[in-house]
Amino acid sequence: MKFLEEIHQESLSLDHKNLEPDDENAKRSSCPVEAALKVIGGRWKVLILRELFGGIKRFGQLHRALHGITQKMLTQQLRELERDGLVDRHVYMQVPPKVEYSLTPLGKTLEPVLNSLHDWSTKYLTRS
Amino acid sequence: MKFLEEIHQESLSLDHKNLEPDDENAKRSSCPVEAALKVIGGRWKVLILRELFGGIKRFGQLHRALHGITQKMLTQQLRELERDGLVDRHVYMQVPPKVEYSLTPLGKTLEPVLNSLHDWSTKYLTRS
DNA sequence: CAGTATCCTCATGGATACTG
DNA sequence: CAGTATCCATGAGGATACTG
């Protein structure tokens, strides 16, 4: 279980020794899981990704599919997903404008992760 | 891929019809993945869980292990984890107080999920 | 159509002090 | 030791209006 590997360099040393002064809790996520959650966290990311797993979508399609999201949030979240390399943005130079969003290869690698979350949730979080 | 199953009942109907008035985007997460992220989301949850995967821990141990967390946040996050059934809280009736936290069986079922997030992050999110 | 540009609210998260 | 109790900053998220 790789999730636990890092425990034993951080917390083991803290269990018998007392607090250490090498504490520079600056920017680096002490844990890869944290980093992953930053990328797919937030209120809309996974919902957007879910839509895109269904194929290429235009901005308006996403806007309608995600009931309640505002244009600002949709744009913003899409930009973040784009910046993180999960989503590809294709602008057609025409008028009226047409912009299509799709998953990048990297974005598609998220599938097992999202399935894992999905499975756990449906299996164990069945208290609505 | 179970993650995609629900797409085809929500977005398919929205793709050819136009917006529907049955839009009651109230409380229910439209997606189990969302629900899962609510439980393990936030800044500290996974870090706390990571510590507890290492075994039973006292409040003070957690407080020291999670550099930078405040007592308030630690208490709050632990209560939420407890309310969600992931963490068990055992109070020893003695003075000075002693409280131990541990993973419940449900909490332990999160291991594959966290491993999945961890694996993805280390494999594909290697841009520090 | 697919955005910007403002302005605004409020929950998340935090600092500090006190206590059974 | 393991908390409460306050007060406070910040920013994520949203409403609304305007535009290339």
What's the arrangement of secondary structure elements?
Two copies of one chain form a homodimer.
Chain A: H1 7-16, H2 32-40, H3 45-53, E1 57-58, H4 59-65, H5 71-83, E2 87-92, E3 98-103, H6 105-108, H7 111-124
Antiparallel strand pairs in A: 1-3, 2-3
Chain A binds a DNA duplex (20 and 20 nucleotides) through helix 4 and helix 5.
Based on the model shown, name its key terms.
homodimer; 128 residues; Arc Repressor Mutant, subunit A; 2 domains; three-stranded antiparallel sheet; DNA-binding
Account of the protein in words:
Chains A, B: This is Helix-turn-helix domain-containing protein. Chains A, B: Keywords: DNA-binding, Transcription, Transcription regulation. 2 copies of one chain form a homodimer. Helices cover about 50% and strands about 10% of the residues of chain A. With about 130 residues, chain A is mainly alpha-helical. Chain A folds into 2 domains: about 1-40, no CATH class; about 45-128, Orthogonal Bundle (Arc Repressor Mutant, subunit A). In chain A, strand 2 and strand 3 (about 100-105) form a beta hairpin. The longest helix of chain A has 14 residues, at about 110-125. Mean pLDDT of chain A is about 80; it is low at about 5-30. At the A-B interface, helix 1, helix 2, helix 3, helix 4 and helix 7 of A face helix 1, helix 2, helix 3, helix 4 and helix 7 of B.
